[in-house]
Amino acid sequence: MFNLKNKVVLVVGGRGYLGRDFCQKLSSQNAIVISADLVQASKASLSSSFAEEFKNIEQLDVDVTNKDSVIQLVADVISKYGEIDTLVYSVTAKPSDFYLPFTECSLEGWQTVISSELDGLFIVSQEVGRVMERVERGNMIFISSIYGVVGNDQRLYKDSNLAELYSDNEVGKDINQPYSHSVYPVVKGGIISLTRYLAAYWGGKNIRVNCISPGGVYHEGENEAFVKKYSEKVPLGRKAELSEISGAVVYLSSNEASYISGHNLIVDGGWVSW
Questions:
Q1: Do the domain assignments include residue 207?
Q2: Are 240 and 217 in contact (CB under 8 A)?
Q3: E strands along the chain, which residues?
Q4: Is the dihedral of CA 145, 146, 147, 153 positive or negative?
Q5: Which of 140, 154, 188, 246 could be cross-linked to 144 through a Cys-Cys bond (beta carbons 3.0 to 4.6 Å apart)?
Q6: CA 4/CA 98 separation, integer angstroms
Q7: SS3 label, residue 270
Q8: What are 205-216's pLDDT values in tens digits?
Q9: What is the pTM of this model?
Q10: Per-residue model confidence as pLDDT tens digits over 218-265
Q11: Poorest-confidence range of 41-45, 93-97, 169-173?
């Protein structure tokens, strides 16, 4: 079960903290994996001790906010492999003011996240969808979040080091009360809605579209105070391991999930159940 032999999987966001593990786990199940991302890996991925071993995984560059870049990416993949069986979209963006209070956040920061996570998803799914429409077969998996389903508990972030760990710049680094940006649940909720729209739209073309909403994923750089507070809110009492999210990606990529479409698979240890 879950053998992905000869399946061509394009992971957009493949150099990210989650994306790297997706690539490795998909490759371990014998998929042909192409990782596409910005040249520079995210701060979260660079600050982890995760072994970056991309054996048998091709690395391509793409800017999802640039339609020409996306068109070129899809053309390059089709030229070499002839098809795309599965698209995984796992893109995140954190502008300089991501962790500041709502009233101090800029419109430019808001638009940066919208551009990467929603506009980018629109462009990528459109271009890959054209390829899948021609063969009347395909599979798309989008990465959302539990915060596309429920509201943020901002109390968890007090005294955390999230701004220092995940933000790619210095703004807000030293504040003792980081806030999760309002744009985050907006884009994650949008991903869930687009999943349902496309699943209904492409059902007649035998193209499945699903999304995964992870809860908090463990990163060894997060300070103990935050991890403890977060874990106490989870029925299972802990954060997720990378492999637990990647396992969901492998499952939805496999033939065993061939009758699942339009679904938001919540992998959160029970967070949204109370």
A1: yes
A2: yes
A3: 8-12, 32-37, 57-61, 86-89, 138-143, 207-214, 264-267
A4: negative
A5: 188
A6: 37
A7: coil
A8: 999 999 999 999
A9: 0.94
A10: 998 999 999 999 999 999 999 999 999 999 999 999 999 999 999 999
A11: 169-173
Containing structural domain, residue 83: 8-150+182-216+240-273
* Angstrom distance (rounded) from CA 83 to CA 131: 7
Q: Largest Cα–Cα distance in the chain?
A: 53
Q: Is 168 inside a domain boundary?
A: no
The radius of gyration computed from the CA coordinates of the chain, to the nearest angstrom, equals 18
Please state, in angstroms and as integers, the Cα–Cα distance from residue 184 to each residue in 4, 109, 144, 205, 248, following that order: 32, 11, 10, 31, 22
Residue pair 61/90 in contact (Cβ under 8 Å)? The answer is no
Full DSSP string of 29-88: TT-EEEEEE-SSPPHHHHTS------TTEEEEE--TT-HHHHHHHHHHHHHHHS--SEEE
Q: How many residues does the chain have?
A: 274
